[in-house]
Amino acid sequence: MKPTLFILAAGMGSRYGGLKQLDPLGPSGETIMDYSVYDAIRAGFGKIVFVIRHDFEDEFRKKVVEKYAGHIDAEVVFQELTALPEGFSPDPERTKPWGTGHAVLMGKDVIKEPFGVINADDYYGAESFNILADFLRSVEGKKGEYCMVGFRIENTLSENGSVSRGLCEVSEEGYLTGVNECHGICRKGDRLVHTLADGSEADFPAGASVSMNFWGFTPDYFDYSMRDFLSFLNAHGKELKSEFYIPSVVNNLIGSGEAAVKVLQTPSKWFGVTFAADRQATVDQFRRLVDEGVYPEKLF
């Protein structure tokens, strides 16, 4: 059975200013998602599942899903504030989504095979998809054997502002022992720094492996995640801005010993559109990759 790729596409890019998932950035109007799907097809994935919101379903199906017909199977699931287990309901004043952990749970009824999880608005590189696909094929039929594709921090920075990244703690055997979310990461001269909770700056470790939300799971992940989501809702469900994140589930499973998460290092360089000023640099990057023969002029 071929692995599935789950793409998180439900968010609006507030800092970027618009629905960046549909922004044409490639030479023939491709989105960043198009390059991820193209790389996934080449790596041997058999299905794409997008999680979006109902309010832009028609536009998304027309501009995104239809173009993949004949190339790979694609399905759409929906993340809404009301998509909660029985007995729970959102605060009427809540507008903030429930987070990436909740978004992945929306795929539980359509994914029955090992699957990868990525952001819609990040470019991960073809080699990263090959690494992920190889791992997912190796864990078919298994439980609790997950992975995270780790990027070198220097390969994930923006020239136009600071970024947030999950700093990975990795054992000598190459397994994840924890993910710590760090904010305000940027270059200061020849240093990398990040912003601490009290507003002060501290050095960020050079060469560190960071999470770009590029995960690999077997389907048992959904049961563990739902268990943690119920605990989250009982503790934080009435808060207006609380969010349920993938790393929270992963950290809990590592701590309990119910899952092991292999960190797969990739040499790929990330780029994306965190800020509006990133857009032209991303357009130029895709143009360069096409000129170098990494991608055709038109993907689909």
Integer-rounded radius of gyration: 19 Å
The poorly predicted ranges are 12-17
* N-to-C CA distance: 24 Å
Mean pLDDT, all residues: 93
Shape: globular
- Helix fraction, binned, reads 25-40%
What does the largest sheet look like? 11 strands, mixed
Return the string of H and E elements.
EHEHEHEEHEEEEEEHHEEH
Given the helix and strand composition, which structural class is it? alpha/beta
Query: How many β strands by DSSP?
Result: 13
Q: Approximately what portion of the residues adopt beta-strand conformation?
A: 25-35%
Quaternary organization: single chain
By DSSP (H or I, 4+ residues per run), the number of helices equals 7
Structure in words:
There is one protein chain. The protein is α/β, with parallel strands linked by helices and 300 residues long. The chain has seven helices and 13 strands. The chain has helices spanning 32-43, 57-63, 100-105, 126-138, 221-236, 246-256, 278-291, and strands spanning 4-8, 47-52, 73-78, 115-119, 122-123, 145-152, 163-170, 176-188, 191-195, 201-203, 209-217, 260-266, 271-272. Strands 1, 2, 3, 4, 6, 7, 8, 9, 10, 11 and 12 form an eleven-stranded mixed β-sheet that branches. A two-stranded antiparallel ribbon has the order 5-13. Strand 7 and strand 8 (176-188) form a beta hairpin. The longest helix has 16 residues, at 221-236. The radius of gyration is 19 Å and the shape is globular. The model is unreliable at 12-17 (pLDDT under 50).
